[in-house]
């Protein structure tokens, strides 16, 4: 049977299942009416006039909450469509041969899976959440441009239809062929889903004759306009529409992330739109923007990835904002290091435009350019790590509640760490050259985009479900679904990482038989993800009609930790106004937020000077401590060299890695500089985020952690007992480094005691 018919049938079956669930749930609802009576089961359904009025209302609304729900519904439909692509890809890869779908079908699936999920699923859902909650969080009546808001959303459905017109045309043609001669339907069979990869690389995209590629480019361009309009609206709303009580210092963390995300959109998406039009002109009007006699095929890669890498952060930052907003609510502590998370968000936004060429290390671009992009690509890991440290520290000593959002947040942090660290390795040129075209990239990328983004969407759906619907969801089912989702995601994408380590090439419809077992494991993980999504849909729909009605505006006991934020206050007023439920107060309140300072803040100079003094003091003490620690470490390594457990040539390799002549002396110099700068600064940064003061014990813990990286980087083929001795000396040398570093810093007394938990 045709792949298009199967996929559309699956898609329709899922949507039909959702409608049937909602239908039966509605018919079986037996809530008491306002007069105390109960409606009979099977009461009359929706009349034609009511349906018509509802359709007019939802297609013409400019209310930010209703448009937000439309965005979320659209994104969910796109996710089901793109998810169906993914399930079919994983099903195809159950066998080494292309005997389930053809190679052409496989190429079509992974092309449209990538574009559908990145363009039509993630951003619309986050923009929907932003539309609904951002005005509530900042005290605005609506978005700054309500009509423009509606226009932006209604551009998305035609954009999706244009992009996926190929499969719709094919299914329509096969359906009509049952009643009319196929000769009349030739025009429908001309369109096929593009099979050129979601990156649309030239010259393949300029030379493929499939006319559907033109519709795809138009659809993507239209979606880019819609996204840019939404971003302008978010920025204007945050800057001009927030209430006078909210300044930049107490703007909530989700709004901060939406602000930076919108700024990224404004810089990135117009360039993508321009590049798409240039590609369209090359295909249809004979221009040579991406032909060898013009700009060349590599120009497309530059333009595409100048949008493409910021796009990763465009879809990541809202998820990070949700994590920072939701996690504290379920651990009973305020967000640790709020300011540092805001700074890291801005830093990610700026740096994201300086890393695009690391996707092009294998194209043969100038090595000096590659080196600079390697440095910035590694550097962007620092603000990302700051977020992770703050999230973990927020959990530290918290009153952790076992709930679905908690499981999703913790699972998201874990997978983000794994995906992020593997990305750091991928930013190194020699590693990237080897693993660029393997499943390592697929696993790393999906651990980021699947590991935290959908997980935070699900967490947000559970967290705000009482506010959205006035009911509670099935908590036991949600716990099971969350656990299943985290398990399935880890199983699938860690397995893909393992395939990448074995240098299994990506993008191929067939593969050697020795990889089949791992592919089966990854496919089982993908099916678990699919099952968990079905359970989530059921829970959301069934609970909408049968969930326990909320009797308080504080279902998560946020008041007890002073985290009853503005959207819940709005909900509390709504409950009192519409259902007569009075505000509730907790039995006990413990301090979680810091009251605002009443005195005037110091001047900019007055704030910069103490920070600069602290930085200079810390950096100086760190450099001296790093020097002392490195000297101690050198002594231990000298013994290791003497007994043959450590090879000095490892230093030569280090020199070559950073582009210097491969000599032991230069390598040791780089090693010493790193020991005096990078590792002490990281140690000082860790001290800011981890509880307790810097001490010898902290130095031992820190050096034990970083020893693993040294053991991998400086390993030179030691085996057996030599390997055991090597690992022992690596550990011993790092302990001496940690003791020297922490002891020197403590001696200079440059560190200040960590503030108590309830202090800023």
Helicity level? 55-70%
- Secondary-structure element order, N to C: HHHHHHHHHHHHHHHHHHHHHHHHHHHH
Would you identify the regions where 5 or more consecutive residues have pLDDT less than 50?
A: 751-760
Look at the helices and sheets and give the structural class: mainly alpha
- Gap between N and C termini: 64 Å
Strand count, sense and barrel status of the largest sheet are:
none
What is the percentage of strand-forming residues?
Answer: under 5%
Q: How does this structure look, described?
A:
This protein has 760 residues and is an all-alpha fold. It is 70% helix and 0% strand. The chain is built from 28 helices and no strands. It has helices at residues 3-27, 48-60, 64-92, 103-138, 146-154, 156-163, 165-176, 186-190, 204-207, 212-240, 253-284, 297-331, 338-351, 367-379, 381-395, 404-426, 429-435, 439-449, 453-469, 475-501, 516-546, 566-579, 604-642, 649-657, 664-676, 678-689, 696-713, 720-748. Helix 23 (604-642) packs across helix 25 (664-676) and helix 25 (664-676) packs parallel to helix 26 (678-689). The longest helix has 39 residues, at 604-642. The termini are far apart. Residues 751-760 have low confidence and may be disordered.
């Amino acid at each position: 049977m045709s792949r298009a018919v199967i996929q559309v049938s699956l898609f329709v079956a899922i949507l039909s299942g959702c409608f049937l669930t909602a239908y039966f749930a509605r018919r079986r609802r037996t809530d008491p009416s306002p007069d105390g009576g109960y409606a009979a089961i099977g009461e009359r359904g929706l009349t034609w006039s009511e349906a018509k009025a509802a359709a007019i209302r939802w297609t013409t609304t400019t209310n930010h909450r209703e448009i937000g729900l439309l965005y979320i519904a659209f994104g969910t439909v796109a996710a089901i469509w793109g998810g169906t692509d993914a399930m079919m890809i994983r099903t195809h890869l159950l066998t080494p041969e292309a005997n389930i779908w053809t190679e052409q079908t496989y190429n079509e699936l992974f092309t449209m899976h990538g574009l559908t999920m990145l363009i039509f699923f993630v951003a619309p859902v986050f923009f929907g959440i932003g539309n609904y909650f951002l005005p509530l969080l900042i005290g605005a009546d609506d978005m700054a441009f309500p009509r423009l808001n509606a226009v932006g959303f209604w551009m998305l459905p035609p954009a999706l239809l244009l992009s996926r017109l190929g499969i719709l045309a094919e299914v329509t043609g096969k359906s009509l062929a049952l009643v009319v001669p196929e000769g009349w339907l030739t025009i429908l069979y001309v369109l096929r889903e593009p099979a050129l990869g979601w990156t649309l690389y030239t010259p393949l995209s300029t030379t493929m004759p499939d006319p559907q590629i033109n519709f795809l480019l138009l659809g993507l361009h239209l979606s880019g306009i819609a996204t840019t309009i939404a971003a302008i609206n978010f920025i204007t709303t945050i800057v001009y529409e927030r209430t006078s009580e909210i300044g930049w210092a107490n703007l909530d963390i989700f709004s901060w992330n939406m602000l930076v995300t919108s700024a990224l959109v404004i810089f990135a998406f117009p360039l993508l739109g321009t590049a798409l039009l240039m590609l369209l002109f090359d295909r249809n009007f004979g221009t040579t923007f991406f032909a060898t006699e013009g700009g060349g095929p590599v120009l497309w890669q530059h333009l595409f990835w100048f949008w493409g890498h910021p796009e990763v952060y465009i879809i990541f930052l809202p998820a990070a904002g949700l994590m920072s907003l939701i996690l504290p609510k379920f651990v009973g502590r305020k967000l640790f290091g709020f300011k540092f998370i805001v700074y890291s968000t801005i830093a990610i936004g700026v740096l994201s435009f300086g890393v695009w060429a690391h996707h092009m290390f294998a194209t043969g671009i100038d090595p000096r350019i590659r080196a600079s992009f390697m440095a910035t690509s590694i550097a962007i890991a620092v603000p990302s790590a700051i977020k992770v440290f703050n999230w973990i520290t927020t959990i530290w000593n918290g009153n952790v509640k076992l709930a679905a959002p908690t499981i999703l947040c913790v699972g998201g942090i874990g997978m983000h760490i794994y995906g992020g660290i593997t990305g750091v390795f991928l930013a190194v040129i020699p590693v990237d050259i080897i693993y660029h075209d393997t499943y390592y990239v697929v696993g790393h990328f999906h651990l980021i985009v699947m590991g935290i983004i959908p997980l935070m969407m699900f967490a947000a759906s559970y967290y705000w479900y009482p506010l959205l619907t006035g009911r509670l969801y099935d908590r036991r089912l949600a716990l099971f679904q969350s656990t299943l989702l985290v398990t399935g995601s880890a199983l699938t994408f860690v397995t893909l990482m393992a395939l990448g380590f074995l240098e299994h090439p990506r993008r191929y419809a067939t593969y050697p038989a020795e990889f089949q077992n791992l592919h089966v494991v990854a496919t089982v993980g993908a099916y678990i993800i699919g099952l968990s999504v079905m359970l989530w849909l059921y829970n959301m729909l069934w609970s909408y009609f049968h969930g326990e009605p909320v009797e308080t505006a504080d279902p998560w006991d946020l008041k007890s930790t002073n985290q009853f934020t503005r959207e819940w206050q709005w909900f509390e007023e709504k409950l009192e106004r519409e259902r007569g439920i009075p505000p509730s107060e907790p039995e006990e309140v413990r301090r979680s937020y810091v009251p605002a300072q009443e005195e005037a803040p110091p001047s900019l100079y007055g704030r910069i000077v103490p920070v600069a003094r602290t930085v200079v003091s810390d950096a100086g003490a760190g450099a001296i401590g790093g020097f002392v620690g490195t000297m101690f470490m050198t002594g231990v390594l000298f013994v290791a060299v003497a007994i043959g457990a450590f090879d000095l040539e490892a230093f030569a390799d280090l020199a070559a890695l950073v582009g210097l002549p491969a000599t032991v002396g230069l390598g040791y110099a780089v090693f010493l500089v790193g020991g005096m700068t990078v590792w002490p600064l990281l140690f000082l940064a860790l001290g800011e985020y981890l509880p307790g003061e810097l001490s010898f014990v902290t130095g031992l813990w820190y050096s034990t952690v970083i020893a693993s990286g040294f053991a991998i980087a400086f390993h030179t083929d030691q085996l057996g007992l030599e390997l055991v001795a090597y690992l022992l000396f690596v550990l011993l040398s790092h302990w001496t480094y940690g003791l020297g570093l922490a002891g020197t810093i403590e001696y200079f007394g440059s560190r200040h005691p960590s503030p108590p938990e309830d202090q800023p």
